[in-house]
């Protein structure tokens, strides 16, 4: 069957038997598989809590725990160009199979730790395993984020991205709850947690690979047939003003968001609200911002000042407003609550709208690689902002004031 531009390429569809538009079932199953993928990536968001429990298990101190946390995040951020490149060159199915195998390997080593004891230093062995596992988790996040944006028509870009982004927030909540449940019910909870991670990594990876294989013709049709795609070469895109701005955005903006989670917990505890208050606020208000920004994009994208850059600017302004609340004076309960709300809205909006913005700016031909390269900048931005975090006896004015002053610069670059 010969398909015209923009029409479904699958010759057979269950959707017509259900009275639905063509390929609705195929796209729906692909989307559900991708939602599982971003939930699996939630391990990265909760690892700061998990590693505090893992370190004593191996006889390591707090400093070593921080190193393990950094290694997992380095693999998940700085090495995310690897799944992006494989996704662009090999397609979603093969890339997902590779990511699943890579993810299973370090967990198998951790489950059979006696193989390595005596041959390598414990900390070095753990850092290698967590680095590899962090990179493997980025397969789930990168592919699950962009595969639906390719499979669905561009007019549904915002709605589809909203579903993925909400599941990203949900993933952090689910992964945190699972860890606490395992810790409460298993004496050797670390071994139980590794079994859980292995089961989820392999199970989720297999389901995603099968969904991508089954829907491959819909998934990758946009790489050659959608006339809205950017047709510039990869080299031209990487040398463009748009990519230069995105580098600044991911280094300053997204890098700040990742550092903010640590800082917000400390600030909330400082004024007696409890460190978990920051995580709860981030989950609730961040998820709301992700939904609002992406759903609104479908209605405003074709209007003047209604594109994704507007929502990015509003997100950065919201982040700066939240920081201003605690930058002008010593943090109080009221100012920290205001920070929680505004910064969570800003962080959620920024993280939620950037995938759709990149899809519209660069098309889908090299989208995975571009996204991965930008996250390399994020991995550099995280320690940059982290270096501004104060000692317990120092003022927060440097961290919060710098964020308030610097983040709006990205808005002026629009």
Automatic annotation (TrEMBL):
Q: Where are the transmembrane segments?
A: 30-51, 95-116, 122-144, 156-181, 193-213, 248-271, 277-297, 309-330, 336-357, 369-388
Keywords carried by this UniProt record: Membrane, Transmembrane, Transmembrane helix
Q: Which InterPro entries match?
A: MFS (IPR011701), MFS_trans_sf (IPR036259)
Pfam families listed in its UniProt record: MFS_1
Does the record carry DNA repair as a key word?
no
Protein name according to UniProt: Major facilitator superfamily (MFS) profile domain-containing protein
Origin species, per record, is Durusdinium trenchii
What lineage is on file?
Answer: Eukaryota, Sar, Alveolata, Dinophyceae, Suessiales
């Amino acid at each position: 069957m010969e398909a015209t531009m923009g029409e479904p390429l699958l010759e057979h569809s269950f959707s017509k038997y259900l009275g639905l538009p063509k390929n609705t079932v195929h796209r729906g199953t692909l989307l559900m598989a991708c939602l599982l993928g971003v939930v699996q990536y939630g391990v990265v968001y909760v690892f700061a809590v998990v590693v505090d429990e893992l370190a004593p298990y191996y006889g390591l101190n707090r400093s070593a725990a921080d190193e393990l946390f950094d290694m997992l995040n380095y693999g998940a951020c700085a090495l995310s160009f690897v799944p992006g490149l494989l996704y662009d060159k090999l397609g979603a199915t093969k890339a997902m199979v590779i990511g699943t195998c890579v993810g299973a390997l370090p967990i198998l080593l951790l489950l059979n730790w006696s193989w390595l004891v005596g041959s390598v230093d414990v900390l070095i062995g753990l850092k290698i395993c967590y680095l590899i596992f962090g990179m493997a988790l980025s397969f789930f996040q990168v592919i699950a984020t962009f595969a639906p944006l390719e499979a669905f028509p561009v007019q549904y870009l915002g709605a589809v991205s909203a579903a993925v982004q909400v599941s990203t927030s949900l993933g952090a909540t689910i992964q945190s709850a699972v860890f606490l449940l395992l810790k409460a019910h298993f004496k050797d909870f670390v071994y139980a947690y590794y079994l859980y991670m292995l089961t989820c990594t392999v199970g989720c990876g297999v389901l995603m690979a099968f969904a991508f294989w089954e829907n491959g013709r819909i998934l990758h049709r946009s790489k050659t047939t959608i006339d809205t795609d950017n047709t510039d070469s990869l080299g031209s895109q990487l040398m463009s003003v748009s990519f230069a701005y995105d580098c600044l955005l991911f280094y300053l903006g997204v890098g700040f968001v990742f550092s903010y989670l640590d800082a917000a917990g400390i600030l909330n505890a400082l004024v007696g609200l409890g460190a978990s208050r920051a995580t709860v606020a981030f989950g609730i208000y961040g998820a709301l911002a992700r939904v609002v920004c992406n759903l609104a994009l479908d209605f405003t994208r074709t209007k003047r000042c209604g594109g994704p850059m507007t929502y990015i600017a509003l997100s950065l302004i919201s982040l700066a407003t939240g920081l201003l609340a605690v930058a002008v004076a010593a943090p109080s309960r009221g100012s920290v609550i205001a920070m929680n709300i505004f910064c969570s809205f800003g962080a959620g909006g920024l993280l939620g709208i950037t995938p759709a913005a990149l899809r519209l700016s660069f098309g889908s031909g090299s989208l995975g690689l571009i996204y991965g390269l930008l996250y390399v900048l994020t991995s550099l931005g995280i320690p940059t902002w982290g270096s501004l975090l104060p000692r317990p006896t120092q003022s927060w004015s440097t961290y919060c004031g710098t964020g308030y002053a610097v983040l709006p610069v990205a808005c002026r670059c629009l």
